[in-house]
Amino acid sequence: MSAELAAGTYRCRDVSKSVAAAASAGVTWIDTAPNYGSGSAEASLRQLLDACPQVRVSTKVGFVPDSDRQAARDAGALRYGFDRGHCLTRPYVSWQLTRSRARLSRNPDLVFVHNPEHGRPDRTDLSRTLIETFEELESAADADEIGGYGVATWAGLASGMFTVPGLTQLAQTVGGSRHHFRAVQFPVSLIHLAVVADALDGHGALAEAQEAGLDVFASAPLGGGELLGAMTEELVRVIDCEASPAQAALLVALSSPGVSRVLLSASTTAHWADARGAATRESLPPDRLRRVVDVLGT
C-alpha cells in the first residue's frame, strides 16, 4: 500500500483521545484547523505533539473561529463586516499563523488554504485572493515558520473554480521555481468516485497532482461515516471479500492513483486497528478499481 493513513480532526468529539489512539496505531501525521473542535482542536494536540516529535502536523488558514473573531479584530487583522466567517487577507493569514504556531507549540509542517472558493463567486476574484494568500505563505515558509503550504478544498476542483496546474502556476508566479506549494487536499471516496475514474484514465486532479509532484491528502474517505451504513455485502465482495466494511471503503481511497495520505477521523483504538488492517493490505489493482466505478458509477 503506497498511501498512508493520517489522522483528521474535523469530526472528532474528543480530539486528544482520537489522536492518542491514532498515534498508538502508528499514525505519524495529524491534520487540523483553527476552526475544528469549536476552536480548540489545535491546542488539544499540543500534549501529544510535545511527546511525539516524530508526528507531523498540518493546519489551515481561512475560516474564522467564533472564539478568535474579537481577538483578530482587536489586533487589526480582521476588519468589521469583511470576514463573513472566512478571510484570506495577508494580515489575517499572518495573525492566524502566529496563533496556530502558539497553540500547536511548534511550526506546522504544512498549512492548507482552507476552501478558498468559499464565498467567492468568480475565478478572477479567487485568483487575486490566492495570490495574496500565497504571498503570505511563501513569506512564512522563507522565514522557516511553516514547512510548506497547499490548498484544501471540498468543491473547488470538482466545480472547476481552480485546477491543480492553475494552483501550481500561481505558486510559481509568487514564489518562483523554489516555491513552497507542496500539497492538495480534497475528497476521495466511494461517494466521490469521479476523481478516481479520471485518474485511472490518466487525467483529472489526482493525475495532475502526481505529475506536479504534490502530495494528495484524501479527505472524507468514509463519507463522514455515511458509507459504513451503505456497504452492502455485495459491494464489499467487489472491493475485497476478506475486508471489513470500513476496510473496503478505505481501500478505495488508499489505492487511488496519486493519493499520498488518507485522512481518517476515528475515535477509538478499535476503529484505528480496523483501519490499520486496510492500510496493511495490498492496494486494489486498477482493474478492481474500474470494477468498483462500473458498479457504482460516478
Give a written overview of the molecule.
This protein has two domains: 108 residues, no CATH class; 144 residues, NADP-dependent oxidoreductase domain (TIM Barrel), CATH 3.20.20. It has 13 helices and eight strands. The protein has an eight-stranded parallel beta barrel, surrounded by seven helices. β4, α6 and β5 form a beta-alpha-beta unit. The longest helix has 20 residues. The mean pLDDT is 95.
Quote the CATH topology of the largest domain: TIM Barrel
The general outline is: globular
Amino-to-carboxy terminus distance = 24 Å
Q: Quick one: CATH class of the largest domain?
A: Alpha Beta
Query: What percent of residues adopt helix (DSSP H or I)?
Result: 40-55%
Domains, number = 2
Mean model confidence by pLDDT = 95
Total strands: the figure is: 8
Largest sheet: spatial strand order:
1-2-3-4-5-6-7-8
Radius of gyration: 19 Å
Q: Structural class per helix/strand content? A: alpha/beta
Tally of helical runs? 13
Main β sheet profile = 8 strands, parallel, barrel
CATH superfamily of the largest domain: NADP-dependent oxidoreductase domain
Query: Which architecture of the largest domain does the CATH hierarchy give at level 2?
Result: Alpha-Beta Barrel
What is the string of helix and strand elements?
EHEHHEHHEHEHEHHEHHEHH
* Contiguous runs where pLDDT drops below 50 for at least 5 residues: none
Strand portion: 5-15%
